[in-house]
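Worked example 3 (structure in, sequence out).
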C-alpha cells in the first residue's frame, strides 16, 4: 500500500500521511471533544514517547482499559506508533475476566484513564492516556474535554482507588519526538480475544498488514463510493466495542 508520503508499512503511517495533507480536518469527535488530524498525531506521539520510556517496543503487548471516546483513539495510535500491539479489555467486563485476558496476552503495562485507575490489576503498571496540562482536544459544545485529568497519581493520593503500580514518566519538554522502531507489515498490531463461549477465551493475533488490507478494502468498496454518492466527506459512527474483532 502506498500513500502521498511514500510506502505505508504500518498503521501509524496512514495518520502521518493524512496529517501531511489535511492537518486541520476533524479526525474524531466524541461528546464535547473534537480532535483534528494534527492534534490526534500530537497526542498519540506524546503517549508513544512515554510508552517507549517504559521499555515498550516492537511487538510488546500493551493493555487498553479506556472508555469509548477520544482517549481510546489516541491510545490505539500511540501503542501502534511505539511498535507494540494493543490488548483491549472492556471496562464493563468483570475484573477477574479482564485480568485473565491481560495475563494471557502478556500485557504488563495498561494504558487507562483516571476514573478507571482502580480497575487496573495490581500486577500491572498503569499509564494515563493524557499528560499533565493536556486539554484533551477542542470543545465542541462547551462541555468538559475528555481525558484531561493528567497522569496517574502516586499510590495513596486523593482520587486514586488502589490501582496497579503507578507510572510517572516525564514527557519531553522540547517538543521532540524520540526515534521509534520501524514497524513492518508483518509486525503484530493487536491481540483480541474470542468470547470464550466454547471454553476459555483465545487470543486472536492481528498484524499491521491485516489492518491495512482491511482499511484499503473498506475504503475502496464502502467509504469512497458512499462519499461520492453523498457529495461530501463522510462521518462514520463507531458502534462496536474495540475488544470485538469486527473484521
Amino acid at each position: 500500500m502506498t500513500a502521498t508520503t511514500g510506502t505505508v508499512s504500518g498503521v501509524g503511517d496512514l495518520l502521518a500521511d493524512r496529517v501531511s495533507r489535511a492537518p486541520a480536518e476533524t479526525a474524531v469527535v466524541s461528546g464535547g471533544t473534537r480532535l483534528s488530524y494534527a492534534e490526534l498525531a500530537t497526542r498519540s506521539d506524546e503517549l508513544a514517547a512515554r510508552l517507549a520510556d517504559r521499555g515498550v517496543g516492537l511487538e510488546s503487548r500493551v493493555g487498553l482499559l479506556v472508555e469509548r471516546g477520544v482517549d481510546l483513539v489516541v491510545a490505539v495510535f500511540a501503542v501502534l506508533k511505539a511498535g507494540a500491539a494493543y490488548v483491549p479489555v472492556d471496562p464493563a467486563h468483570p475484573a477477574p475476566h479482564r485480568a485473565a485476558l491481560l495475563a494471557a496476552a502478556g500485557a504488563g503495562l495498561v494504558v487507562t484513564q483516571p476514573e478507571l485507575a482502580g480497575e487496573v490489576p495490581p500486577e500491572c503498571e498503569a499509564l494515563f492516556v493524557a499528560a499533565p496540562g493536556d486539554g484533551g482536544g477542542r470543545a465542541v459544545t462547551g462541555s468538559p474535554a475528555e481525558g484531561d485529568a493528567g497522569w496517574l497519581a502516586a499510590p495513596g493520593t486523593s482520587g486514586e482507588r488502589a490501582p496497579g503500580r503507578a507510572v510517572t514518566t516525564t514527557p519531553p519538554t522540547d517538543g521532540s519526538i524520540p526515534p521509534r522502531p520501524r514497524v513492518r507489515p508483518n509486525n503484530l498490531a493487536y491481540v483480541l480475544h474470542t468470547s470464550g463461549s466454547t471454553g476459555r477465551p483465545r487470543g486472536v493475533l492481528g498484524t499491521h498488514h491485516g489492518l491495512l488490507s482491511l482499511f484499503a478494502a473498506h475504503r475502496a468498496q464502502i467509504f469512497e463510493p458512499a462519499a461520492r454518492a453523498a457529495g461530501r466527506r463522510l462521518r462514520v459512527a463507531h458502534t462496536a466495542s474495540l475488544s470485538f474483532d469486527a473484521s
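Notes: Confidence is low (pLDDT under 50) at residues 1-5, 139-171. Residues 1 and 216 are 8 Å apart (CA to CA).
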